[in-house]
Amino acid sequence: MKRKWERDLGLQGRMIFTMFLLAAVYLFFLAFLSYNGTPPIFMMLFIGASMAIQYFYSDKLVLLSTGAHIVSESEAPQLHGIVTRLCAIADLPKPQVAIVRTEVPNAFATGRNQNHAVVAVTTGILDKLSTAELEAVLAHELTHVKNKDMAVLTIASFISTLAFYFVRYFLYFGNVGGDRRKEGGGIVLVWLVSIAVWIVSFILIRALSRYREYAADRGAAIITGQPSDLASALMKISGVMSRVPSEDLRSVEGMNAFFIIPAISGSSIMDIFSTHPSVEKRIARLEKMQQDMG
After folding, report:
1. What total of structural domains would you count in the chain?
2. Catalytic annotation, pick one of 133, 135, 141, 213
3. Checking CA distances to 279, which of 90, 184, 217, 273 falls within 20 to 30 Å?
4. The pTM is what?
């Protein structure tokens, strides 16, 4: 039975505002680089081509980077059955289903829209969660598809990554196309502006990422009707995460913005810069939802 779905105006507003601010920041950045001698046509073509590749092949790139494999119904009948039922409730076209062979317990959704989406789970999460908990986690990921925030995060993260690598390598390669009179102090100035652009991007993406996780938790509660199942799943995943070998966590840390829980240890200083709100806050909200639903 389809559940009543209320549009999350808070999430939609934040997605639009984040993309607007990111666009403004990067237009300023391009104008600054152009002023300092970098050919603007070359920059626009490079960024445009890169973003097109990222947009149309984002799901394939994510699957490749995580080692996820698309599985058929005959290979994972129970998993497909859960996704099919949840999609019927959420009024969504069924996405492709993938499995990542790793002990890190996690799940994620990727793709450019509802008709080109992939929902993936790790073997670690399949081994650790009950059926009800797994349904709640998959409902959370399907909410990302429903809310279309996965596409916004993919694009925003890609632009931020470009800025990061520009900051990282600019001093080595200098001011491409600039005249030598502007080098030296000019290169340092461009590098400092690049850092500022990356920091602003970092903050904007983190702010959007944290809110979208709350929105996906709410969506999972609506789809399943049992917020407590997701709360239980989050407790299990976070409890296991601290016992996963650090080398396994490092191998997937690049996907933290997409995961239901970041693949970092509880003692890591990176908790401060996490793309997700704390598990404790998420569980507290879910428990409040459970009380409200009776």
Report:
1. 1
2. 141
3. 90
4. 0.78
